[in-house]
Every structure is written in C-alpha cells, then in structure tokens.
C-alpha cells in the first residue's frame, strides 16, 4: 500500500497485507456536508449517520481485502506446514511402534519406560486419526494393536454417546438410518435438523397467528376489541404509507440520475461510454437501496452540491435518515460475519479495536511456531535413534492421560454448550 494512513480511525496497515488498494469510493457525502454546517438536530443527526456509514464501509472494504490475502496465506503456508507436522508425527509413531516391538537397540527398556512410550504413541495416533488420517490403515492397525479398544470401536462409542446426548438433552432424534460415519458428521447433521425444526415451528406459529387474525373481525361486536383493531389497522396503514414515501424518495434520486446519465441520449462515443459506466453504478446502488451511493453519484456528476444537501426538506430528510439507518444495520451485520472467522482464529487475543495487521502478525507467529514444531519433531526422532537419548527423554516424561478431568473434557463441555445457543458449526470436539 502507498502509506499506512487509513480512512478508519485507529487502523494502521503495513504494505504487505494486501495485493492491491481497495476500490475507491465515490465522492464523500460527509465531506460535502461538513462544508456547510448543519442547523437543526435532524440535519446534524443525518450528517453524523452519513459519516458513520462511510467509516463502516471503509472498514468493511479493508477487512474484505485482507480476508482474501489471509486465505492465500492459509492455503499457501499454513496447510503445507500442517501437512509437514502430520508427516513428522506419522514417522515418529512408526518409530515408537518399532521401539515397543523390542527390536535392537531398544530391547532393554523397562516396564515403566515402555508404558511411557506406549502413552506417547497413543497420543500421536489419536491426534493423527482424529485429524483426518482415519483412512490410514497402517496407523489404524498400529493403534488397534496397542490400544485397549480399536479405533472403530472408539468411533462407534463416540457416535452412540453423541446420539444419546442429542436425543436426551437437545431433543433431536435422527433415527437409526441417519448415515453419519462418526460423531462429527452426526453433530453437523443433528444441528441442521435442529435448525429445520426451529424454522418449521416458526412457520407453524406464523400460520396460527394468521388464523387468529382472520377470526378477529367476527369479534368486532366488542367495542374495546373493535377500537383496538382499528388502532392496529391505522398503525399498519401508516407504516405502509411511510414505507411507500421512503421508496418514492429513493426512486426520485434514481430517476434524476437516470435522466442525466442515460447513454442512449448521448451522441458522443467517449461520453456515452462514460455515462454507461456511471449508469451501471447507479443501477447497482438503486438495486441495493444504497441511498448514500446515489447521493455520492449525484455529487460526482455535480447534479447536487453542499447547499442542496443542507436544504433537503424535513420530510425527505426523515426518509433519507430512515434509509441510512437500515443501511448501517446491514453494514454492521455484514462486518460481523466478515470478522467472525478472525475472532475465532485470534481467540482470547481478539480485541474490539483489533486490526488486520495484528491478525496477520498472529498468523506469522503461529507459522513460526509450526516450523519449530516440525524441526523439533524431526530432531527428537533422530536423537531417539540412540537408546541413551531416548531413556533420558523418558526419564522426564510424565503420563497424564489418566487425569480425572482435563482440558479436553472442558472443550467437550464448551462445544455442547455452544449447540444450546444454536451457534454456527463449532470446531471438532477432542477425544480423551
């Protein structure tokens, strides 16, 4: 990027975060409004709303540009590194299996030392088989040879436990022929079923309310009910009229722009091309109910100026304000969805004023740690070729898999608790 200044206050970006600058916005309506101070509170509120929308749009554009670059780093750097880590773990698991076979030079290991080797081997195998290597028949055979229960039995037990949990706690019955191969697939299917059930319940409630509303005119003999119905109908009619007037205000801006920019009325080829491009932007803005974009285009072609914006009639100003409030809500929603993956990645490090640069730096630290992990796994395996180094490592190794309550169990509880709130599909639960 050319420089580090950002249109969003508090944001600082380095040049390596983006492949290109975000697309420039049309003329800034907030800057034009600031040229002529607003008088009434309504005009001040309108100017402030415009400023907030422009800042929110700039913030969203910067995060969207960063998201593309972030995905490129994940695909080009993180995924290959994870593959290297899994490869090193696999080689270490194969090596530990040889150690447990008691072949020279590891034949002299004691009972406790062999128990530690077995514990480490099962931890590695469990991580690999859960992480996507469950189709690795060689690793599965090693696991089944050393573990108390086979990998297939563990997966089946997990699936049965998850089926019971979803049925007893969440009331989601999937039937015996659900087709899920493991607990993770079943959870995704069960959550989708739950969403469908909630949607069906909402539809039934709507039909019941509509049926009750259809019967209300029969009870008009009651004066109190009749007055209440009349008041509700009047309020509904007022809302419909206001919505119509708001739509007409937006359409009036569009028609002025279309009248000035219609390319078919332009004889000059160069000017016709320019108007065609502008008209495409007008159509896109109008289809999205983007009042601010339409006003910006009016300013861009000098159809209106600061004085015009400052002297908008009060009723039309109220319509404009209503449209902009809806736009701001939509932008807030879109920004939340855009930031959700970064919040999940950053975890506790996420802050309200977190920037793309901080996310990028966090990813760089993760990648550096992963490279160290690859190197450490490789160095450990090579060092353990010498029984003396292996025994030295085992002397400091502690078996902790029999802890009565560990972090994996906490992860499981947090995961199922998230389902209660109908959150998006969460991360895969750990297995003890």
Q: If you had to describe this structure to a student in words, what would you say it looks like?
A:
By secondary structure, the protein is mostly helical. The protein has 14 helices and no strands. The chain is elongated, with a radius of gyration of 32 Å. The model is unreliable at 1-25 and 402-432 (pLDDT under 50).
List keywords for this structure.
mainly alpha; 432 residues
Report the helical percentage: over 70%
The tally of strands reads: 0
Please trace the helix and strand order, writing H or E for each element: HHHHHHHHHHHHHH
Spatial extent as radius of gyration: 32 Å
The tally of helices reads: 14
Flag low-confidence runs. 1-25, 402-432
- Cα separation of the termini: 47 Å
Give a short account of the largest sheet: none
Q: What is the SS-derived class?
A: mainly alpha
The shape, in one word, is elongated
| pLDDT averaged residue by residue | 77
Strand content: under 5%
Subunit organisation of the chains: single chain
Give a brief rundown of this model.
The protein has 432 residues and is mainly alpha-helical. 71% of the residues lie in helices and 0% in strands.
């Amino acid at each position: 990027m050319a420089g580090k200044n950002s249109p969003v206050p508090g944001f600082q970006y380095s040049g390596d975060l983006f492949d290109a600058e975000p697309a420039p916005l049309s003329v800034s309506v907030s800057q034009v409004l600031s040229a002529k101070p607003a008088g009434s509170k309504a005009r001040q509120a309108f100017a402030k709303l415009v400023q907030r929308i422009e800042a929110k749009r700039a913030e969203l554009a910067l995060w969207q540009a960063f998201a593309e670059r972030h995905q490129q780093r994940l695909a080009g750097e993180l995924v290959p590194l994870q593959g290297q880590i899994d490869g090193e773990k696999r080689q270490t698991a194969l090596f530990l299996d040889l150690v447990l076979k008691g072949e020279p030079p590891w034949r002299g290991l004691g009972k406790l030392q062999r128990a530690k080797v077995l514990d480490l081997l099962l931890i590695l195998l469990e991580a690999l088989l859960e992480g996507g290597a469950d189709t690795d028949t060689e690793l599965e055979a090693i696991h089944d040879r050393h573990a108390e229960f086979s990998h297939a039995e563990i997966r089946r037990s997990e699936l049965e436990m998850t089926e019971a949990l979803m049925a007893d706690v969440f009331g989601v019955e999937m039937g015996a022929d659900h087709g899920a191969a493991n607990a993770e697939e079943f959870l995704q299917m069960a959550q989708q079923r739950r969403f469908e059930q909630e949607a069906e319940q909402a539809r039934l409630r709507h039909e019941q309310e509509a049926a009750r509303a259809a019967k209300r005119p029969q009870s008009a003999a009651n004066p109190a009910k009749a007055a209440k119905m009349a008041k509700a109908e009047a309020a509904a009619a007022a809302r419909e009229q206001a919505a119509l007037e708001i739509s007409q205000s937006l359409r009036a801006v569009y028609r002025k722009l279309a009248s000035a920019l219609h390319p078919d009325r332009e004889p000059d080829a160069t000017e016709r091309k320019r108007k065609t491009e502008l008209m495409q932007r007008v159509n896109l803005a109008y289809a999205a109910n983007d009042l601010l974009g339409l006003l910006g285009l009016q300013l861009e072609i000098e159809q209106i100026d600061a004085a015009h914006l400052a002297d908008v009639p009060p009723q039309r100003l109220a319509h404009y304000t209503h449209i902009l409030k809806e736009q701001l809500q939509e932008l807030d929603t879109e920004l939340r969805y855009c930031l959700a993956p970064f919040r999940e990645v950053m975890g506790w490090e996420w802050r309200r004023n977190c920037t793309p640069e901080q996310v990028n730096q966090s990813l760089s630290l993760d990648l550096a740690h992963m490279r160290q992990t690859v190197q450490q796994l490789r160095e450990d395996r090579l060092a353990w070729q010498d029984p003396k180094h292996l025994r030295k490592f085992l002397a400091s190794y502690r078996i902790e898999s029999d802890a009565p309550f560990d972090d994996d169990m906490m992860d499981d509880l947090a995961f199922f608790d998230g389902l209660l709130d109908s959150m998006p599909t969460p991360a895969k639960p750990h297995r003890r």
